[in-house]
Amino acid sequence: MKFPVFIDLQDKKIIVIGGGNIALRRIQTILPFGGKITVISPELHEGLLDLFHNHQIGWLQKEYTMGDCKQGYMVLACTNDRKVNDSVYKETKELDCYRNICDCKEESNFYFPGIASKGEIVVGITASGMDHHLAKDVTRKIQQELETKAWETKFSDYGKA
């Protein structure tokens, strides 16, 4: 079991190796939290191209090479190539950074929770990597609850002196 932590990503350098569907999902999750994201990939998913053209992410149009991760506060290996992901793991294991290897949770030192949010409220949900469907269902239900006005009324005086 992992300890839940909320990390300040504002202005932190996040390196994403790979430019496909998994990279898109991970980037869409991180983007609202303010990291400076650079994708390293010869090609980009259409959704990532849109983010690049809108100046929301950077893009190095190339294959990953050893040393690409050295400046990353957080590194995400999001390729469908085990050899590349393993190389990213080996490089980042030697660095003092957060790493997520998409095809091997054992090589990751963090993983992505389901996230429900509204305003300043952010809730991270995990089933410890054991049941993604359960975590997704719980996340969806919490998000639905946050979208109602009932919780705002219930907690409207919370934090007031």
TrEMBL record:
It catalyses: precorrin-2 + NAD(+) = sirohydrochlorin + NADH + 2 H(+). Pfam families: NAD_binding_7 (PF13241). Pathway: Porphyrin-containing compound metabolism; siroheme biosynthesis; sirohydrochlorin from precorrin-2: step 1/1. It comes from the Bacteria. Coiled coil: none annotated. SUPFAM superfamilies: NAD(P)-binding Rossmann-fold domains. Keywords: NAD, Oxidoreductase, Porphyrin biosynthesis. It is an enzyme of class 1 (oxidoreductase). Signal peptide: none annotated. Gene3D superfamilies: NAD(P)-binding Rossmann-like Domain. GO terms for biological process: siroheme biosynthetic process. Its EC number is 1.3.1.76. GO terms for molecular function: ferrochelatase activity; precorrin-2 dehydrogenase activity. This is precorrin-2 dehydrogenase. It comes from [Clostridium] celerecrescens 18A.
